[in-house]
Amino acid sequence: MARTKQQQPESNPSLSIKSVTKSSVWDIQENDVIRMWEAACKDAEVKENVKHYLQIFKSAFFIEDLRDDSASTRKSFENRGYKVAMIKFDDNMKFTWGIKKRPITRVTDLTYENIRHITATQLLEVIDRNFGGGWDSLSQSVQDVIQSGFDISTTTLPKDRLHKKGGMYEKKVEDGYEVLEVTKGGWVEAIFAKLKPEEIKLRMQLRSGDDDDYDEDDDSDVIVEDNYSSHDEEDEEVDGPNDDDITEDNYSTMMDLGSDDDEENPELIDFADE
To answer: 32, 82, 234, 248: which could join 28 in a potential S-S bond, CB 3.0 to 4.6 Å?
Structure first.
């Protein structure tokens, strides 16, 4: 199945060392890291807390301290995709770092911090690399991370019925979903993914009966969470592939992608410092 080439996210020049977080750090590239540290070399607070700020960058970048600053060492790191730069606070405090963005190529690379910083196409490419097992092959913790940033729905149909005109596949694509097809014998599981919209504040006017205290000009803001349901009402559970009269309606399946009772744990998937 053809997929578009992954694109690097654009740099975010508005970020600085003091404003970057473990989420927004995924918006920048190696050259941004160098620029931000060079700009902060005269900041006494940064100088005193180098380890603290460095840990934030290490959540999205490999940062190696090159104790041997020889030309051959630099060349070795550059050949492996690192950007090499000297960060100098003063004559007694300077570092030569090799910096490289952490790739997101496996499902175990996905975290609550980076999940909204990839596209639906990139997400499905990562899922496709997971031994081709489809959605059920992912652990619950990985599914939770993915669903924190994307609307996900699935259906399994006979291969010759999946692309039926006017069916679920066509409707999802028209609605902006990217789709991954996982072949399972004569059947195909389609995994649909679409980035969830950011939470927005909506003005809500609440009125109960003839409440005299009701004020149409009440400007109270209420956070409305996106509770998009991935279920399609017309899709029913698949009982098996042996029925001679197979239709999309009586054989398509939709997974229940509602949240579990357990609270999301942002530490479920994390990187180990290299």
So the answer is: 32
- Count the neighbouring beta carbons within 10 Å of the beta carbon of residue 236: 15
Phi first, then psi: give them for residue 190, nearest 5 degrees: -105, 125
Kindly calculate the radius of gyration of the chain based on its CA atoms and give it in whole angstroms. Answer: 24
Q: How many CB atoms lie within 10 A of CB 230?
A: 18
What does DSSP assign to residue 108? G
CA angle, 98 then 101 then 104, to 5°: 145
189-227 pLDDT, tens per residue?
999 999 999 764 444 444 444 444 444 444 444 343 444
Quote the Cα angle for 159-162-168, to 5°.
165
Could you tell me whether strands 93-101 and 187-195 are parallel, antiparallel, or unpaired per DSSP bridges?
unpaired
Helices H, strands E: what count in the chain?
A: 8, 8
Looking at the chain, which runs of residues are DSSP E strands? 61-65, 83-90, 93-101, 150-158, 178-184, 187-195, 200-203, 221-224
User: Nearest-CA neighbor of 57 among 32, 38, 79, 75?
Assistant: 32
**3-state DSSP call for residue 62?**
strand
Q: Which two tokens stand for residue 67?
A: 């104790």
DSSP classification of residue 138: S
Residue among 162, 155, 147, 146 nearest 237 (CA) = 155
**Long-range pairs, 46-52, Cβ under 8 A, ≥24:** 46/17, 46/18, 47/89, 47/93
Is the pLDDT at 261 greater than 90? The verdict is no
Task: List, as one string, the DSSP characters of 113-134.
Answer: TTGGGS-HHHHHHHHHTTTT--
- Give yes or no for a contact between 87 and 95, defined as CB atoms under 8 angstroms apart: yes
269: pLDDT strictly greater than 60 = no
